[in-house]
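Attaching the record inline, Q. Sequence:
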Amino acid sequence: MTLEEISKTIEAEVLVGQDSLKTEVKIGCASDLMSDVLAFAKPDAILLTGLANRQVIYTANVADIHAICFIRGKEPDEKTLKLAEQKGIVLMTTRLPMFVSCGRLFKNGLTGLGYLDISKRNDQR
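Structure, as predicted:
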């Protein structure tokens, strides 16, 4: 799913990285715990979170996540926007809650963390 398709699906406004909307995303990650993101995230993911601070940008950078969508209408401050721009991370915001956002993305073909691993285990049975 491209970032452009994601933004339309969850009615998100792009805050940073409008020129990267053709980027393909392979997996979705939703968490407010950055330690979970570091432990479980996979590259080329989009992170959905209710946290709108610089720590989210640093975490995404370390985890090789190239896009973040803030849920419930959260918007980061100017320093966070600038940091995301420097790191090449696309930022979006949606008024939708996390559950609805994840549901819409999953319904439209974006898989979540662990889903592929669970599917593989079920196929081996």
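The chain has one domain: 3-123. The chain has six helices and six strands.

More tomorrow.
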